[in-house]
Amino acid sequence: MKYKVIAIVTLAVCVAAAWRDLTAKPPPIELLLATPNSFPDNSLAGVQKMILPSANLVGLCQRGRVNVFTFYSDNCPGSRKLCGYIGRFTQMRPDVTFQMVDLGPQWRRKDCYQAYGLELGSVPHVMIYDSDGSLLARDTRNGKDGLNLLVDWINKEVALRAPRAST
Fold first, then answer.
1. Residue 92, burial from CB neighbour count under 10 angstroms (0-12, 13-18, 19+)
2. pLDDT for 42-65, tens place per residue?
3. Which homologous superfamily is 27-161 in?
């Protein structure tokens, strides 16, 4: 009888621990609010962090401005490269608001961002909203429409600002 009680108590403790692990909330995703002055060295060092309150990105958009949300991880070479481009772009276009969502080293753990209702297939992941808060472009599992639009936009801005050779 004594061993049955010990076995039942042990089983109950194991079930409680497993339940706690299954219902535990993932670590919060940190939202980096990036302003044009936040990228002096084309990196995100020193940018003030704020916990992402929800996946309601439209509610975080600044009205009257184009808003670009970039989900990234410092562990991703493509993300680091894109941050450098964004750093230069923010100096050219201070009228565009960039909000960088740091998924951290656990970006491959889908439960970290699915808890926010986000569907991210890979990083960097870009979502662009117009000045009214309407979604212009976003990356999906099947394509990188948001990233492609942003890169094209950056390339056009750089080309417009490049010094022209006189003929």
1. middle
2. 556 556 667 777 667 888 888 899
3. Glutaredoxin (3.40.30.10)
C-alpha to C-alpha distance for 127 and 150, rounded to whole angstroms: 9
Amino acid (1-letter code) at residue 40 = P
Tell me the H-state helices in 24-144. 57-60, 77-92, 110-114
Angle at 42 between CA 38 and CA 46, to 5 degrees: 40
The CA dihedral of 78, 84, 90, 96, to the nearest 10 degrees, is 10
Kindly report the pTM of this predicted structure. 0.72
The pLDDT score that the predictor gives to residue 136 is 92
Handedness of CA 47, 36, 60, 77 (dihedral sign): negative
d(CA 48, CA 139): 25
Whole-angstrom distance, CA of residue 14 vs CA of residue 8: 10
Every domain of the chain and the residues it spans: 27-161
Assess contact for 126 and 147: CB atoms under 8 A.
yes
pLDDT for 39 equals: 57
Q: Quote the radius of gyration of the chain (alpha carbons, Å).
A: 21
